Structures
1.
Amino acid sequence: MESALCGLGRPVEELHIALFRGFRVPLEPVNFDPRADGLAQLNRYDLVVLAGVDPVVLSPAEQLAVAAFVERGGGLLAIGGSHSFGNAEGTYQLLDPILPVKVLRGLDIEVNAMPAATMHPIARGLPTPLGYVGKVHPVELKPGAQLAMKARDLPLAVAGECGYGRVVVLASYPECDESEYGWFFTGDAFDDFLRSTVSWLRKEQERVWFESFSLPNRQVVVGNEEFGRLKLTGPEAVALQLRTTLTDAAGRTLHDSTASLQPKAAHDNVFAFRVPDDPKGRGVHYVAVSVLDAQGRELARRDVAIEVVNPTRVATELAYGRRAFFPGSVAHLVLHASSDLRQAPDELVADVALLDDGGQPVSAPKRRAIRRRGDAYEAAELALPVPRLRPGSYRLRVELRVGEELADVACEQLHVLASSPNRGEFPLIADGGFHLDRATTDEAVRGLAAAGVNTLSLPGPPSPTAGRGAHREAMLAYAEECAVRAGMALAHHRRRLVPGLSTVAPLSPCALTPEFREALEREVRPLLAAAAKTPALCLQELSSQTWVDGSQLCRCPACQAAFKRNFGSQLPPEDAAALDPAQRRALGAFVTSYWWHAFAAVAKLRDEAAAGVKLWATFDSTSFLRDGPGAPYCDALVWARACDGVEVAAERDLARFRLSLTGHRGIMSSLEKPFGAQLDIAEGALAPAEAAYTAIVHGATSLRVADNPRFLFFKRQPPLGAAVGALFTRLARAAPLLAHTRRPHARVAVLFPFSEVATRDSRELLPAFRLLYDALGEVDILHERLATDEALAPYGAVAIIGAEQLARRAAAAVGAFVERGGLLLADRPQLRDEEGTPAAWPEAFFGESETSVFGAITIRRRRYGAGRTALFSAELAPAYEEAVRAGDSLAARELRRAVEQTVAEHGVRPWARASEQEVEVGIRSCPNTWLLAAVNHSDETRAAQVELDAAAVRATCAFDLATGEPLVVHRQGRAVLTLRLAPRDGGLWVLYPERPFTLRLETPASVRLGGGSLGYKALVLTESGHPAPGRHVVRVCVVDPMGEERPEHGGLRLTTDGVLEASQPFAVNDRPGRWTVLLSDPLTRRAVRRTVEATEDRGVTP
């Protein structure tokens, strides 16, 4: 639309564009020109275009301003969209008086037809064929409306007048890329339609107009002359000139002719043009027919695109449409040859070469014979290894020959990418960047990269079936290309990878039937194979576990037989409240095995069809809480075995989010698999920075956020850049350290009584976890099935609070833990095991004498073996919950203090603890390096003192990773830092045993290009000149002789105990000259530069 409006016959003086953002989502204004003063000052414009706009994004005052603008004489063009007209969330009530149609609520109507035009001024004489329209909005003509175009007898383009102004409604919208030919919105007719529409809305007087225009043959063979017909009409007889021009895609004029027309009111004429006879002149060309007056002024114009071809030609196809490749990868090319000659050659020869921007070959050429089989040529497949080339654009040139005579030339542009060494190390993932057109996609991906996103997650791999979702496949491939060109890793998110998964009905087909396996082969195997083509991380979201529930069982004969076979009884009814504990336990075990079977089947298929694809599942706090009889049932410990990683869903409640992060971290740590966290940028959710730093405190290894603004529960999400600010940019600077540090075990663990939660509506874990976390600043959640002697060994204390039932094996492990020297915190002297019988604690396990803690809460202490037990009264966790709810700060503080002192008396101290209750801190570590993460949960700025375990964190210096500023570490028997945190925000600080002081960079003076490498040694040194212990983030910038930065040689790197040695081979087409290596460190504030002379010589000067 923008290019068409800019190409009007009369130049546009002002063209202001208010962009709206979104893909299949309601739209929100992003950058309306501030000079336009909103929509209140429309008088300066001739017309307003509302394209795909939901009225909900315009205020009532703005809608009334548009209506008044039309009534005063302005023009309005309203074009439909996936969230406008009948799909809109807003109402057209305020705009209805000026529209020539009544907008009807309802789904779009599939037509897939070419429009039929009337002789209305906006539709007459458009180039035929008009192109296809996919969908039409349901609208109803008002009295006096003027029908300009229809599609299958449904109104498509309708014109009308209101007051002194005019309105045109186009009740459809583009569902294709701007380069996809054959559709009305991307065909030859659309820009002419817009020109005519603008002219009519402006009430311009036409001296002459096209009544018809046709160019039947749009595929023209080189050297041929083509003819078209047109009919011109005007109110009076005037002398005219008809000018015909042919230009190629580069804008070069290949034909220009002018013919004079005799003065008369109607002209029925033929126009002609000739295509030069040049085998290299193939491609898209443009024919323009202009009507000029005697003075040479343009009165009317039509332009169409044609494809110039050779009689014997070749078409190229790159697998999955991908045109961006890393050095060392393989480009899969398919050649399709055809011939219009009566005596078509039996054999053709295709020469394939990869050329640089100067037309020089950069790889060994390939030759392939193409033979004719019957009436067609066979498709020729070639695998083209991409050599180690300089990053940039290259041309893939295919020359088709008949014998030695050149018959056709086809070119494809390829992009060779820089393989950054730390690409996507700590994934900062954004779902989005996939739009209906290339320009918006490119802009969106660049915007995400600028916001610090290093991994782009797209909605599923391209369709593996040719011709199925062709436009979606092309746009996904283009989004992937944009992402890798921006230096981003790739991921895919796809819900319902399990066939038949639904939120409202049982799984169909049932996972226990042969039909399910057939559905896997038919639907999932091709998707996994397509995903395996992505040269990076591929994240498949198996499902949202909130869909996984006992009520989702189909209870078919296969389910009934499986339950009978495993448990010896009939499958219980759906009413969970009517089941006894034994039935609930059996049903829970069956649900677990049922969904394990489904998830494991997908994982097995992945192993067969796509070994490189990563399968991730999404879990939330319902893995550990049952909020009622109908709550989703989730056994994360079992289901996590069927995936490669887990993402923790965002929670609006901070305590539930902490519990979910802690619990899933424990499960994934036991499986030695990563876990990440999702961020929610919708209104009412945790602030993105608050949620992100909370997840990092709890050890998350990746973060993911949805980019597209969605309406969730009628609340808008802002665009990602505005929502997260510089959050991802800050985290990207620390990504190497985040990727190589791990959160150690907390010093205290609370047991998760799975056997109790699985059989009844237990909600006691959350209050117990909240109390322990608030009191100690850290706590792990240990699944009772993981409670073994080995798993309990890292902890100083274990808590069993709020539980009435515990597995017999877990209780025995806890008893042995105490006897070896551990501390047990409990609130009930008697527990039941999974069979309902009392747990057998050792004799004299708990103390007899009670000591008052606060109010009615008491504690009973006793030594047992080398350890201790501390038995609080059963009201401990509920009392703390009530104190927090009632705002009783005294009671809450005393209860926290009782727990903290009990643990401290046993010599158990947290890794890190903040002085402010609203500030949360956590430690991540690797050898000689400690990363301190902190987050402020308050609405006010907080200055908190953080005390570290001096015995474990042997640091003498600390630095803010965001600013590089040093912090004082006070060590007078303890290590203390003072942090200042913004509201609902956090930060990262790195600590080392010795302070880094300066840098040193060692490089050779010269190196050879042919088969050589650019190597360097970077050192971070202490003040004494020794390599600084620990892992330090340094930035290496390598610039080649052309002045271009080469990220494959540098980027953010990590030293190992102060030393980094790197070597990267030169590209085969690198040029000799002076290379520059710049080493910088934000902590020492030092930078070192060295130059290396790259020569063609074989010798190397040290």
Note: The first strand starts at residue 20 and ends at 21.
2.
Amino acid sequence: MMVFTHEKLKLRSDEIIAAAVYDCELIAPVFMAAAADGRTGHMLPPEHAWSEIHRGDTWGQAGEGQDLPEERPNGYAQPVGHNYWLRTAPHIPSDWQGQSVLLKLERAETTDPCIEALVYWDGQPYAGLDQYHSYVRLPATAGDGADHDLLVRCYLPTAQPFKGLYLQRCDDMVLRLGWLLRAMVEAVHTYPDTAVERHRLLVGLNTLYAALDLRHGWNSDAFRQSASLALAKLEQLVATLAPINELDDQPRLVATGHSHLDVAWLWPLWRTRQKAAHSTATALYLMDRFPNYHFSMSQPQVLSFIKEDEPALYQRLKQRVSEGRFEPVGLMWLEPDCNIPSGESLVRQLLHGARFLQEEFDSFPRVAWLPDTFGFSAALPQLLRSCGIDSLMTTKISWNQFNKLPYDTFRWRGIDGSDVLAHFVTASEGAALWGATYNGKMTAHEIASSWQNYRHKELNTELLYIYGWGDGGGGPTEEMLEVAQLFGSLPGFPQVCQGRVDQYFDRLTQRIGNDARLPVWVGELYMEYHQGTYTSQAHTKQANRAAELLYREVEWLNAWAVTTGAPNQQAHLDDGWQLILLNQFHDILPGSSIGAVYADSATQYEEVQRIGQTVREVALSHLVHTDQAQDLLVFNSLPWARHDVLKLPLVAAGALLAENTTAPHVQIIEEESTPTVLVDVHTPSYGYRAVTLDETPPDLGHLAATPEQLENDFVRVVFDDQGEIASLVDRRHQRELVAPAATLNQLVLYEDRPLDFDAWNIDAFYIEKAYPVQTLDSWTVVERGPVRAAVEVVRTVGASTIRQRICLWHHSPRIDFITEVDWHERQMLLRALFPLHLNASTATCEIQFGAIERPTHQNTSWDWARFEVPAHRWVDLSEGDYGVALLNDGKYGHSLAHNVLGLSLLKSAIDPDPDADQGMHRFTYSLLPHRGDWRSGEVVRRAYELNAPLTAVWGKGAGSARERSFLATPTDHIVVETVKVATDGDGLIVRCYEAHNQRGITSLVFDQPVHSAELVNLLEEPTGEQVTVDGQTLTFEISPYEVKTLRVRLYA
């Protein structure tokens, strides 16, 4: 009887591995110095900074210019950590010559975060040390008798005792035996107890273990001689199993070494740069030892860090790229969130990534590599296709909480009908049945489960397997590479071969790309988990929206100025864009990083704004004569003529008001304690108009305010005694919009304590504990004027204050809720609810470059699981002939429950950032009643107008023009999203999209004659499609939700 055999062999394999390393020698002397350049740690300290360090000495304290760990008030600590250098000249004992010698930095701690280091041998980056790579195998030249310099750049999370730097002798044969035995023992465990293979393998492994001679201990010659025989028996056992699996149709895993690197998460950006360097060094070091090893690295942003920080390492990387063994994967600048960034941001992720990879490596990955992104917008397939990307790899959708996506390999079709071939990796992590991993450990369970879990065995027998320590970098280990070829010999296991990602997807496409049996998934890839990422870290999300909007306007102004002979500033804007793209990483923008990340992010967004405003000023100085301050020139950056209200500080409007202080279309208010002027104006599309108050004043119509009611020609708003909207009547159409026995703008607080992933998740049970916010500190009329009327409601909830100015404009039915929240709650979700008197089973939600419909009911588990959904500037609930849209200027999380629209305002998680969302927030959301559906109600335009307010400068138009329109389109369902100088400087790039799911002929009209125009893809390459040029007008066809990009050359 075999009792505890499996447990015994597992333990013995670990002991064999430990016995492979022996004869440990402490290196002395070792010299230490704090990094001279603080957090980056790249510069070698000056000579005077070095001092000898002995075993037991404390190191890791803050050096000069380095910050101490930051303690949080509620007891959470976020260690900043510090960079140190070690220097020595190791001497290899003479009797170790010709043997494997390991370098090990002994650690005082065993948990993450731990010491991470980059080893330099003779001045060159050599290999990395981290939690999962505990030693470095020194080069064969280490024992040649020459003097060799050893430098180790170390990151220490906390101060700790120095445990020593050691040389160790390694018996490679014994180490290989231990690794293979451990892998085979685990493989036994993957078979059911009834399987013959399980017992056959177990008997074979026990027999070879019995051959080990341990009578004189693990460090005896007898053991090592017997280990050699045992290894031969193990390899013979594997060989006897191999013919069983040598079949033409045997499943195969294409294994790519990888080191998924979160650009920021539980560490700040400066640590990521170090992680990138040591992970890359480790990959290159292992390539020298394993000739068949292939390694893939995503994110050009990370590659650019290595290029900047470690030039010599980068050159070695490039050499391996040219050999085909180091593969840049994924075209995007980094692995962004795909729910929150704008459509143009996703375009720039692709454009900047493609440009870097083509310039640096002459490489063009045709696979979207997004393993860890929290769901995918239905706009994405078109954007990928327009860049020449025809495949998507991910796995995070496997984390779905309620419903498992039914496919692993399928066609994914977007809102415009474009599709890409999607493939999900299927390796289960550990024994978990829930969720696949992109950080494989090359274990028997992962190899077996990859094939067992795959649901299209009848279509495809070749799968992708991604292995290597990730999230915090590191990559594959020696053990993973040693055992990689083992599993293909085991009954029931797929073959494992090293390979390239691009070649895998080429074969997959050729094999099943046109197979009629390949399933199709239409619409968004919604992740039923991490729904809190639409709301967490609200300041960052609002900063991202502000940056996207600013650069949209500034690129147009720069392009317009260039056509007048001004210098092109697009390169400066590209620098700003790269900061925007960096902060769209899938753990930064979603709000799931530590506080230090958001401190850095705030600084970077300030730089984004500085660049944008500087470019704006230079461009305006060429478009108008700002030194001739005669007129107030009001600019409209939207592609339609606009009747709106300009808002500017009173001090900037002094000259205007001096003309006529009683003009009926001007109003002075106080907003955020600043005297502000509101001016009713009409502006042309993509242009400006000079405004003076001596013009014939417009008829502004009726506008009235009392504490209980706001009213204009369009709507009447009636408040109840709690300050909520008890009645909202469309006066034009005699419609009551408040659901019976309900109120609008209900502010509700929910207990938000998810079971896991505090910043990431909102659990479905959050609705069980709701606390209506109905305290009323004050309620007053604060604005009565010809342009705007407003009441202000102030509420206290817990330690927080909510101040809302509810505004009605003279020219619109739109009701604005200008909100200021001084927020000091934790693990509470604040939401605004709008129960509407409408009947609709679906709501329409804006996404990038279009919109999608989502159910408002809970008929199925798929419907119910969407209790929180992402949307951009608006969601709309419409019945046959009428609807209401909910607009916002920086929020993304929404709930759609029957007739109730909800907008998530603040979340305030405590992990990983205990101070998330604390402090002052300012934002606006709006209700827009409209006749017909969202298309006839012009919801797209009204939402843009809320987000892109009019701007103004004092000056004189070029050529004394009082009004100019650079660009217009007569088609009401076309949105011109982008006007910029082409990346190569040849002409302008104009990008538009069809916003209403309609097709037809459209045109663009410029204020200058068009020399030539061509349709291009998102990478600004010609597509060969036709565009007609007639004077100042371009005409072309457009399809539903299609994004069109044109290169336009204007006559000077």
Note: The CA atoms of residues 629 and 867 lie 53 Å apart.
3.
Amino acid sequence: MSGPSSSTNPPTDPPSIETPAPNPEKGHQLYACGHCGRRYSRPEHLQRHVQTHTLGRRFACGICGKTFARADLKKRHETNHENDDSKKRRRTTTALNSGRVTHACKACAAARVKCQEEKPCQRCTRRGLTCVSSDAGSAAAMNLVHLSASARSNDDEYESGPSTGPAPTSFPLDQTSLYGQTVQLQSQPQSRSGTPNTGDLTRSEASSSQQPDADQLPFCDFLRDVLYEQQYDQPARMPDNTGLDVLDFCNDTNMELSDMDFGLLDHWNAGGTGPNNLNAIPAQADTPRSDNSADVAHAHIRQNLVTAWDVSPWRWDPVAKDNAFGEQGNLPVSKKDVASLQAEASQGGLRRVVDQRLDFAARDGVLALVLGACQPDAMSSRISGSFPSADLLDTMLHVFLNSHTNQVSDYIHFPTFKLNEQEPEWIAGAAAAGAVLTPIPTLRKFGYALQEAIRIVMPKRFEENNESILNIGLIHAIVIGQDTGLWSGNRRKMEIAECHVNIPTTMMRYRGKFQRSTYPMLSVTAADEGANLEQKWRTWVDMEKWKRFVFHLFLRDSQQSMTALTNPVMSYAELTLPLPASKELWYAKTARDWKHAYLRREDGHVKRAPSVGDLFRDLNLLAENRHRLDVQLSAAIYLQAYWLLILEYRNLCSSYRIRSYTQDPYGNTNSLLNARRHQLLQDLQTFKVTTMNWPEITAQERLLLNQLMMALHISIDDLQLFAGKEGDEQAHRAFHVLQQWVESVDSRAAIWHAGQVLRFAKLFPSAQLKNFYAVGVHHAALAIWTYGVIKKAGTKQDVSSQHEKIYTDGPESMGIQRYINTGQGLPVFRGPASRNGVSEATIENPKAGMEAIHEILQANFGGANRMAPAIVENLCVLIRQLDFYLQNMASQDTSTALVATTTVVSTVLFLVVARALLYPVQPKTIRNPLKLGVYDKANADKVKNLVYQPDQFPGARDVETPYGSTRVYEFGPEDGEKILFVHGISTPCITLAPIALALSKRGYRVMLFDLFGRGFSDGVADIPHDARLYVSQMLLVLASSPLAWTGTNAFRLVGYSLGGGIAIHFANAFPNLVRDLVLLAPAGLIRAASFGRVSRFLFVSGLVPERILAVATRHRLQKPIAASARPSPVAPVEPVTTPPLNVVEAEVNPASGKAVTPLEKRVMEYVRWAVTHHQGFVPAFMSSIRFAPLMEQHDAWAKLAQRAPGTTAILLARTDEIINPDDYRRDALSLVGGEQHVRWRILPGSHDFVMTNPQDILREIQDMWETKA
């Protein structure tokens, strides 16, 4: 997949145009390129070669726009233009490793296949096509996705030089994507050589025998070659820097065994902190204890937890090797990592926040800064040869800018932002911040190394010219670098960044940026126009940028204080400046837009907006000025400022050694502190009630609010001490204090707020539960763990089902208040939603609780296989260690354990025997009725009346795949627009016959096929029938066509029922292939109740043996239609008591209310026939119920909103017995962008409306396509 710049300027460097790569036998070459290993005998030749790596393609042809890395190449190219007359003989042959021809013809360019220099080309001649040459050079650029512009050999060596890290020799199929999710494939991992080539790069002409045999290629490479229709001298294998988006289906896995597997390199954290290091922690020997000896058990826990805190990200013990230059070896970046980041950005749909691209001059400025920080000098040449290009830095910058737009305190004004006018220090700091957000370990290392280099050179910039402290861009650069370090998860970087946070604060404090007088109100009238209005807007923008930047520093300072429990650098009392203005004003793109918004929002106001201190005095000012302020940011400022009040209270409590839940040795002091605490709680409760229904207040502010209220009910410092932060002695002292807390009202209130923290953590947008907010989840985990451990060890708790469950992560209720006040009820909270449902954990079972909280953190980043930020990974380690050391809390006696062990062993033996009888081993492929001879002449009379015959449609073919045979039909005019159909769960493609035949008669080229286990396709028994299998089948079907079905907007996709759910995953994975998407009663959001409780339990639980379930399913699918016609509709007397129709039943029996059409009846009869005669049908049906995209596909549906408006149609049936139109409107319409984004229609008929009402469907489809045309 091409990177950000590949669509504009394709690579043009010819192979070996300079000094030929020497043969080692011809002499010793002294000068070697640090990036690719190429060697030269003269330094000027090496210098010229390095420019191709570092400076990019700066020289553009003035005639055709083609770009070059060197001026001499551009000059020679322009000379060729001058001599390009009609008499000049054109080259008719190309080298075997040539990347592309000068100009491909239009037919070959559209099909993305190899063309020839001589016209007409062989492909057009062979196919009878008109060979028309394309005059635009951009056609070659469009083919860059599929063809390498660099001259590379076709053998198994993929790299022309050594990379910066060891190349893995084996690559797993499950990969991590920056914007997607990870799903493990069922097939075995492939491997291929990654040995770098350090020899001669100039190859002799390769013979055909050197090209790899297709039978020996990994399956993904073989399928790629088939799908792209390799022709003649086109290489049979694409270069590694070519993306393979066609195999990255479902946006959740990458089958290409190349660049993404570079993530197997060492983790960024040199200290080795990570989940895998958990086993390295020495475990203490278990010590039996009596039921009344809690102190003994806690002594062992405390000893273990003291060790756990040694790997905390907040503990750093410097060693001799720690210095500012230790990470410079990570600054060179290999081609593998460049391709990985660009592939991730392309696959994830990285949004460009600004329309400018980083130019080469800006990139060279960053390189100069980095070289200025290098030691020793030998490292400079290596960095120069392998420093990222402008395109790669531009991608990193946009990763950072996208992240910046998602944060509460955004301070970059994008309407006036000019990327290439920023200071080099700013560009470097932002690129570093973006690099550490990528999931590629080597690029994360690069980001941290770049951040370290900028930290070294920044002081020199300010010392050279002290006026630089007025340059907001340079101060931005300092803060961006500090933000990267503060939340890096690296102990050294976090401590160094914390040591320097006061530098930008002090700079702005003494420039008066905290004071109200610095931000006067502007006089804006409706008459302001032209330069006067532009000047006022610019003045306002400058003030607002400083204001928002000040508040960003304040939020960061307060968050760091809450994280480390230290005193902040900034005080709320000195922040007299007004709160930030509304987002509408901040995001106004022009001065005129800003003026209209300003007059509307500031009309009638003669005073400036309130400050944070004003909100302390009167919180109603927030509601009164709601239309003037950025409410979300203002609320965050108010809450973070409130932490400073809570910290003052906690410091006093610590000084007097009293808590609200302990005995009072100082009567008057405790009374005063309790009064202060009561006032703080009351103010926060007022804020909660005031903003309860404000849409501007997001999950981030709700989490922070409950974190603050939890801190008023329990000292976080006490929790950390008990967890072993300062050793066993302090943990023992904290234990006795917390014993009193557990029995108090405060403990139950703290647990309630901790549950609320988890509640709102689960509502965070994907990949946003990080940094400070992840620390908040950790604090909640500490509170829950401490309460559960002490409660479980100190008393015998009755956690029977007779107690009412109190969901601490649910909305507030009378049950919650009763639990807090009296302790009645069983407190529980829920884990993240998953495909297997939602797990529950009781507060008094700390082991289950820590597992659930660990899952909450991981679920926000796509699960355990995704690479979360390092700070989150470290917090997960601490939480898992809390779970790990609970093994010393075992209180079961020996006899109970013996009985349990005996029971388990007996049960396992029984299950082993039962499995052999009830779970038969299926073959990998189950042959279809054609292969079994069911349709032979001897059985002709038995099958002649079936609605579905092998020659039912023209253009039939059987496609042999690694999974089995697939029946495909393709018919209609070859030059017609292409349409691919995907049918439902129980019927073959015959159900779509009325629509497909009608469209073929209207000039469309249509393709139908039978899903695995249906019709005349083989069954697949060893792989789950999920979206991955069916999307792979679709790719194989497309590849089997003699026509080109790939390319931009290659075909229209129509999916019915289950086929609709499959089509959604295909369209999400390959949005450029699918021109229009039509979903007919699509699956994906079917509610669980529609399946019936019994049916869902039978299929999903796994408790019912396969043999028994198959018999029951076969019996149900064979039930005949009760009558030849449905009864006339009669309103039920008690419709509420009518049981819902089971989905399995509905797939066999059409809904009542209308007459059964002949086609409907014959199709249902065929289904019953297939149950008996297609041995793969019932296994496929059962597996589809379990694994296919039928339910809970909200994430996949939400991605439809990213498609262009008007390219998606969702057609539902009014009386559908499976797909409820009202439920889908509530669940799906908002996900896909609303009716203004998709074509949403309710048509007559039931779920079988593709057979009963095809004309209505055809009318809507044709209207949609004609409207677009």
Note: The chain is about 45% helix and 5% strand.
